[in-house]
Amino acid sequence: MKFFVAWRPSVSASASPWRVLDERGREVAWANTFLDAQRVRQLSLRSLRAYAYDLLHFARWGAERPPLSQTTESTLFDYARHQLDEEPKPAPQTINHRLGVLRCLYRFHYGQEIPGGQFHFQRFHKTRSPLGDGQVHRAVTRGLRLRQPRRVVVPLCADEVARFWRSFRTFRDLALVGLMLLDGLRSCEVLALRLEDLQLADAHIRVWCAPESPCPRCNA
């Protein structure tokens, strides 16, 4: 059976406009009820879209397998192996996100964690308060999770920073970079600014952001 994701903006405001459908255009109930619940929680349209495509990927893989109610950690293990055998192979972050969505989906429908099945992936690790203080205590990680490579951010040296600032030719260039560095604006938000958005008398700038139309430049 074939599945696909469709954009349905005509649905009610409490329903997700992103829908998972089968080859005949019928709703996939177990996926769309979950998406509707996330819409009620006021998740962004971008998050709903990501969830819909994660569920689509699982639906295509699990079409010939036991139903969702019989899912175990062994099922997720087979699903992760399938993704690692794909070409091109998805990143560990992508696989972990899909597994996390499936655990949320299972909890939503059955009110409990996915059972262990044939394999068990419990792992003990040490942790402390997010503030870095307090006593270290032991915690348990439940479920399969792939190791994600850590991103090492290499700062620019003084000469590279100097060349970066010398590359600007106009005050407009400096203003654009200043808005991004000092005010946290994204590139699509800066490029969308118009003269009428500058409220100089009040020292305000009106920033427009349309989550339903993601920016191709910054993918945000």
Provide keyphrases for this structure.
single chain, extended, 7 helices, alpha+beta, 220 residues, 6 strands
Topology:
Elements: E1 3-7, E2 18-22, H1 29-40, H2 45-61, H3 73-84, H4 92-110, E3 123-127, E4 137-141, H5 158-166, H6 171-183, H7 187-191, E5 198-199, E6 204-205
Antiparallel strand pairs: 1-2, 3-4, 5-6
Helix pairs in contact: 1-2, 2-4
Structure in words:
It is extended and about 60 Å long. The relative contact order is 0.08. The protein contains seven helices and six strands; from the N terminus they run E-E-H-H-H-H-E-E-H-H-H-E-E. Strand 5 (198-199) and strand 6 (204-205) form a beta hairpin. Helices cover 40% and strands 11% of the residues. The two termini are 33 Å apart. Mean pLDDT is 86; it is low at 216-220. The strands form three sheets. A two-stranded antiparallel ribbon has the order 1-2. It has a two-stranded antiparallel ribbon with strand order 3-4. A two-stranded antiparallel ribbon has the order 5-6. Helix 1 (29-40) runs antiparallel to helix 2 and helix 2 (45-61) packs across helix 4 (92-110). The protein is α+β, with helices and mostly antiparallel strands and 220 residues long.
User: In angstroms, what is the radius of gyration?
Assistant: 23 Å
C-alpha termini separation: 33 Å
Tell me, rounded to a whole number, the average pLDDT.
86
Total count of strands: 6
Low-confidence stretches: 216-220
Strand content: 5-15%
- Structural class by SSE content: alpha+beta
Series of secondary-structure elements, N-terminal to C-terminal: EEHHHHEEHHHEE
The strand order across the widest sheet is 1-2
Anisotropy-based shape: extended
Number of helices: 7
Helix content: 25-40%
Largest sheet geometry: 2 strands, antiparallel
